[in-house]
Amino acid sequence: MAHHLREANDVSQTGLSASGVELPSLPYRVYILFLLTVIAAISAVDRQIFDILVEPIKAEFSLSDSQIGALNGLAYAGVYAIAVIPLARLADRHPRRLVIAVSVALWSAATTVSSAAKSFIFLFVARMGVGFGEAGLSSPGPALLSDLFPKHQRGTVTSVYMAGPAIGMGLAYAIGGWAITNYGWRSAFLLAGIPGLIVAPLFYFTVRNFPKGMADGLLRDPVQPPFFQTLKTIFAIRTVVWLIGGLACLALMVNGVLRWIPAYLTRIENIDAVSFGATLGTAIGAGSFVGHILGGPLSDFVGRRDMRRQLTIGILATIGAVATIWGMFQLADINQFYVLAGVLSFTGGIFAAPLIMICTTLPPVWARATTAAVTLMAIYLIGFGLGPALIGILSDMLASKYGENSLRAALLSITLLAIPGVLCFLMAARFYRADIVSSEAQLARDAAADFAD
Questions:
Q1: 6 within a domain of the structure (yes/no)
Q2: What is the pLDDT of residues 325-350, one digit of tens each?
Q3: Domains held by the chain: number
Q4: Class of residue 429 by CB neighbours under 10 A (exposed 0-12, middle 13-18, buried 19+)
Q5: Domain region containing 209
Q6: Could you tell me which of 45, 259, 321, 423 has the fewest CB atoms within 10 Å of its CB?
């Protein structure tokens, strides 16, 4: 381990990988990090913009909460879950920049087309396009960063990258609230979709191709094993398996609630979108930004003596999410509500960077994008897909008993998922140290084989 740390320090000081291969210049790598962060922000805008448009879309098409939940969750996350692994495999086999650039163009076009929706089915298909496109960024993006930055820097680098979605989330609510009031909900989709159509070609033509695993000392792209062998390798990493369970529960709680907040404020609190859009967007965006920025460095810091301590971040985030949700819907006035919405967004963001770091560090180089894809597939399908849909279904089911307060009752009931979530994080911590040792051994074998050839 000490030898590995000395190699990592040499990388940061000389610009060489562990094998002595010269890395791209630091300014160029920072430029790529910046572009990916901007793309991640655009991704969040296109994903979240629908949240603040729920009530006008529901009114125009006469939709139920279950249908809104399907649009806001399953239409996007269902296709995302199906596409994320194949697109990750493409990114592990082919240039990552190509997969990312095409994906950005695709989801941006789907968002733009949403402005022309004439029916529930039209909008459902368009949201499917957004989910398919964004599946091409979620794992290839972090995998590209792991190719360019050494292991000891990845927590911080990933935090910078994950700040993009936090910024985008805040912009989505602010842009959506302004657009609804001044031009209608269709204009919001146009404003959200156009930037990606500009950035996609910029990324493709200014980012070069790099050997996968360059920062870890590999001289060339590793051989990609068959898919099922890759899956077998991934699911043998017990830390990753338990993390999937813990993060799925946390994402279902946090994302499910956050996606329904605009509808809750409009329907229950009788506040129009332009009045709360900027305030809510700022609160949620700031909370998510701070969580994403702090998550990586905090993970690096607490893991210096014992890497298992990194998992306590997920446990505390889960417990904090439960307390915050109950405070929002039971104890808070409207000003406190906005503050707590920011806190809830913080709890959802603080473990994002550690998760991506673990998923792009523990597996072999040839399985990194696929590992991130498998993890994100579960989290998005359950948290981003099932979360909003489940809350919508619960709200409809509870309407006969609670009336207009059925949405509040559904939002509170979702906190029961904290129990299995905490248990999963505890199990991940149990296996984390052994999986790190196995990862180091595999990396040494891959590097030795590379040199031998």
A1: no
A2: 999 888 767 888 889 999 998 998 88
A3: 1
A4: buried
A5: 24-220+227-452
A6: 423
